[in-house]
Amino acid sequence: MDTFLNHKILPDFLDRMKSLISNEGKEIPSLTRIYQKEKLIAESSNEVEKNSDSSYHSEILCLREAKERIGTRYLTDCLLITSLEPCLMCAGTILLSRIPTVVYLLPAKQGEGISSLSIETIYSRNFFPELICIPANLSKEAFKSFFKARRKKFN
């Protein structure tokens, strides 16, 4: 899986993210994809602003699409890749979906992402995915410029 991730999934993901960044600006530049056995089955970007609903994170939307597409509640043979470490809301949905591998390009602040879940939470679910952080400057700069523009707009 790691070789496939580095040679196929990651470069393709970064290319798609570049196009998302250049075409958007109104939404947080979060892109999520789910692969099943190395095949892309779902892709989504944030729609929080578009829908005025804070639950429309790219991870949640992508999980819904993947489950609908393959017709199952659990995604036990899938990989999720996203531009920013999943928040705690998304983390809960990822755990309940039983995705074994989560890859993200930008870590969240301490206490705000999936990597900060407590041992008690992990133990109570009896499941926790492998977390892989692959720092990508593209993701870091996209989020930085998005929030810089937002601060200017509202100041």
TrEMBL record:
Q: Which domain of life is it from?
A: Bacteria
CDD domains recorded: nucleoside_deaminase
**Stretch forming the signal peptide:** none
Q: Which Pfam families match?
A: dCMP_cyt_deam_1
Q: Which InterPro entries match?
A: CMP_dCMP_dom (IPR002125), Cytidine_deaminase-like (IPR016193)
- CMP/dCMP-type deaminase domain: from which residue to which, for each copy? 15-117
Q: What is this protein called?
A: Nucleoside deaminase
Q: Which organism is it from?
A: Leptospira ainlahdjerensis
The top of its lineage is: Bacteria, Pseudomonadati, Spirochaetota, Spirochaetia, Leptospirales
